[in-house]
Amino acid sequence: MNQLNFRSGASRLLPALIAVSGIVSVFSSCNIEPGLKAASTITLSGGEPASENPAAVPVENLPSNSASIADPGAGKKTAADAATIIARKQVPILCYHHIKNWTATTSAKGKDYIVPVDAFKAQLKMLADSGYHTVLPEQLKNYLEYNTPLPSKPVMLTFDDTDLEQYTIALPEMKKYGFKGVFFIMTVSLNRPNYMTKEQVKALADEGHEIGSHTWDHRNVKLYQETDWATQIEKPTQQLSAITGKPVKYFAYPFGLWNPQAIPQLKKRGFEAAFQLSTPRDQVDPLYTIRRIIVPGYWAPATLSRTMQNSFR
C-alpha cells in the first residue's frame, strides 16, 4: 500500500499543548466552546499519521447549513483594524485529520490525530444537540472585519490533509445535521490510495463546502525558499481552482506553523485568510493567523464541549 512520506516532527508538540489546558489564557478574548493544539512536516499514510496541523458572536439565527454567506454591505463598510479584529470574541474552529478506528499499533502520538468513528459521531451529535451552527470562512471573515452577525453558537469544522475518511465517514455524518465544513487539500495526495480523488474534492465544493489550500506536500512554510512559493502554493491553488471551478481563498499552514514573512506571500497570491493552530495571532494581520484547535481522538463529547466553553469566552 502506497505511503506518502512528507516530513514529520510536529506531533511532538501536541501533548505539551494538550497538557496546557489553561487554554483559557492561550485564547484570551473568547466566548463560546471546545478546543486546542500544535506543531513541522508530516508522515501521512493509510495507517498512522503524524499530521500537522476560535470565537462567539452576535446572535442571529441563520441557516446552519448555508454556504458562505457574504455581507451584502461589506463593500460599503470600512474593515476593522487589527486591534478590533483581535478584540472580537473568537469562534471555535475545530481541526480534524483522520476519522477512523484505532488499531493495536496506534501509538499515543497517533491518537492525538486519529478520532475513532463513534467518537466523531458523538462529537457531531453533541454539537447539534447543543445548538451549534457551522460557519464557513467567508462568514467568519465578514464577522471579524465588519461585525456581520453570525448564527447563534457558531462553530467551524475544518479537515486537513485530504484523508479519504473525511469524505466517506465525516461527510455523511455532517449531512445528518446540515453541517458544512472546510477541507484543506494537500494536492500531492489527490487520487492516491487512502486519499480523496479529484472528483470527490469537486463534489465537496459542489455541495457547498469550502475547499482550501494546504500546500502541495505539507512542507513547513518557515523553510520556503523563493521557488517553493510556486511549487507549494501557486500550482496547487491553480489545480484546486481548476478542479472545483471556484477560487481558492483560504489557506491552512502545515503543522499550524507560520512566520510574518509568509503573510505577504499569501496576500500576493490572493488568499483572504489563513489558519494556524494555537499560537498567538499576528498583531498586524490577524486574519492570516486565525487559530484552530486539534481535537484529539480521546476527547469525549463532554470534554470537547467543556473545552470550547472554557477556551472561547
Question: What percentage of the residues does DSSP assign to strands (E)?
Answer: 5-15%
CATH topology: TIM Barrel
- Summarize the amount of helix as a percent range: 25-40%
- Output the helix-strand order: EHHEHEEHEHEHEHEHEHEHEEH
Fourth CATH level, the homologous superfamily: Glycoside hydrolase/deacetylase
Q: Please indicate the count of domains.
A: 1
Q: What kind of sheet is the major sheet?
A: 6 strands, parallel
- Number of helical segments with 4 or more residues: 11
Oligomer: single chain
Number of strands: 12
Can you tag this structure with a few keywords?
single chain; 313 residues; alpha/beta; TIM Barrel; six-stranded parallel sheet
Overview of this protein structure:
Strands 3, 6, 7, 8, 9 and 12 form a 6-stranded parallel sheet that branches. Strands 1-2 form a two-stranded antiparallel sheet. A two-stranded parallel ribbon has the order 4-5. The model is unreliable at 5-68 (pLDDT under 50). With 313 residues, it is an alpha/beta fold. Strand 6 (133-134), helix 6 and strand 7 (154-160) form a beta-alpha-beta unit. The protein has one domain: Glycoside hydrolase/deacetylase (TIM Barrel). The protein contains 11 helices and 12 strands. The chain is globular and about 45 Å long.
What is this structure's SSE topology?
Blueprint: E1 3-5, H1 13-19, H2 23-26, E2 43-45, H3 82-87, E3 93-96, E4 98-99, H4 108-111, E5 114-115, H5 117-129, E6 133-134, H6 137-146, E7 154-160, H7 165-177, E8 181-185, H8 198-206, E9 210-213, H9 228-244, E10 250-252, H10 262-268, E11 273-275, E12 293-294, H11 301-311
Helix pairs in contact: 5-7, 5-11
